[in-house]
Specification:
Blueprint: E1 2-7, H1 10-20, E2 25-33, E3 36-44, H2 52-61, E4 68-69
Antiparallel strand pairs: 1-3, 1-4, 2-3
Length: about 70
């Protein structure tokens, strides 16, 4: 599982999710932080040949520089 980012702006979350399509299973979920609801983008079930490190690099190229691999 890779946490790609959390966004206050839903469009930013959708943009990142779209950029990650084809790399694995992308999910966008609501999470609460304090009184705010954010959109969290995650990547799981990586595509054949895709490593977690490659996915983090792809996320960075898409503008998500805070992606974290959860093991």
């Amino acid at each position: 599982m890779i946490d790609l980012g959390s966004f206050a702006n839903a469009e930013n979350a959708r943009r990142l999710a779209s950029a990650m399509e084809g790399l694995g299973t992308v999910s966008v979920d609501d999470v609460t932080s304090g009184s705010r609801t954010l959109k969290r983008v995650r990547l799981s079930n990586l595509a054949d040949g895709m490593t977690p490190e490659m996915a983090v690099e792809a996320a960075a190229r898409a503008g998500a520089t805070g992606a974290v691999v959860r093991r």
